[in-house]
Amino acid sequence: MSMETDFALTREGLRGVNDESTYGGVISFMRRRYSRDLQGVDVAVLGVPFDLATTNRPGSRLGPRGIRAASASLAWEQCVQGWDFSPLEELAIVDYGDCPFDAGTPDQVPEAIYRQARDILATDTALLSLGGDHFISYPLLRAHAEKHGPLALIHFDAHSDTWEDEGARIDHGTMFYHATKEGLVVPEASAQIGLRTYNESTLGFNIFDAVAVHERGAATIAEQVRALVGDRPCYLTFDIDCLDPSFAPGTGTPVVGGLSTHQALQLLQHLRGINLVGMDVVEVAPPYDVSEITALAAATMALQQLCLYTVSPGRG
Fold first, then answer.
1. Burial class of 97 by CB neighbour count within 10 A (0 to 12, 13 to 18, 19+)
2. CA 72 – CA 144 distance, rounded (Å)
3. How many domains does the chain have?
4. 30: buried, middle or exposed (CB in 10 Å: 19+, 13-18, 0-12)?
5. Where does 57-162 have alpha helices with state H?
6. Is 316 contained in some domain?
7. Please, which residues have CB within 8 angstroms of residue 135's CB and are 6 or more apart in sequence?
8. Domain-embedded: residue 174
9. SS3 category, 151
10. Interval 192-245: pLDDT, tens
11. Residue 197: which domain range?
């Protein structure tokens, strides 16, 4: 093990895998360097510690910190499970820190998230965002659609988050309704995976519920999703409650019957080839976690997304 420590502060290059204590040092995502300098950076990791849109148990404001802490145990691996490389070697990645906003003025938070994402994307840096509740995907989608045009959405979740809503309410169950109505996403080229709650209206999304994944298998589902998405710019959002509570208890609205971590990994790996332009992992609520297994699952899903981005045909 190297005698160097705190690579979040002392790392000289933006690429590379280092052997460092997983239980000490400054917390950053995958031990990447903290930096707001995006020159030469491929991906910025942005925490969005917002949970005021939560309708059940709060606590996902602590999600970015929890995911970063759990990610330390993954940062030393030379190759990621299911891939023949590490994105930490292939991509220049920084931990950009957290999006600033005033929780005392919640009506202004969506605009703050949008502007932060817009400014990062304007530098031609891709964005991996760590939530926070799932509402944060809405302002993030605004910024990504502004840069890339209408997006295909690959949405892992127990819930559709497309319940009809009016006005400018901030709710983590309605934001994809608004995103669809505003033309940010193209539902016929999009997929919702792992759903197991009822919503009569699909808004045109292609739904692959948890039963479909269990019965037909991850590889088959992923192949169908890739065909739907095609080469359209794609945003991937992973709500950790897509996983069964036995694999991810630390979330605000758990629903039984969900995906296993193995199934989720298989789905992400079989999505290789999509034109990924943006990604997030959301709804980790550490107060309800057990032995950090939810945070570890989320960090692993985020790492898999970085692998997908590494081989994305539209990268760069």
1. middle
2. 28
3. 1
4. buried
5. 63-71, 87-90, 109-121, 137-148
6. no
7. 50, 53, 110, 170, 171, 172, 175
8. yes
9. strand
10. 999 999 888 889 999 999 999 999 999 999 999 999 999 999 999 999 999 999
11. 7-310
Which residue carries 């002392």 as its tokens? 10
Residue 54 inside a domain? The answer is yes
Distances (CA, A) of 287 to 66, 172, 282: 10, 19, 15
Classify the C-alpha dihedral 118-120-122-124 as positive or negative.
negative
Whether 24 is covered by a domain: the verdict is yes
Output b/e per residue, 166-183; b: 16+ Cβ within 10 A.
Answer: eeeebbbbbbbbbbbeee
Q: Are 161 and 283 spatial neighbours (Cβ–Cβ below 8 Å)?
A: no
Using a cut of 0.90, tell me whether the model's pTM lies above it.
yes
CATH label of the domain that carries residue 210: 3.40.800.10
Query: What radius of gyration, in Å, describes the C-alpha atoms of the chain?
Result: 18
Q: Which two tokens stand for residue 98?
A: 């957290």
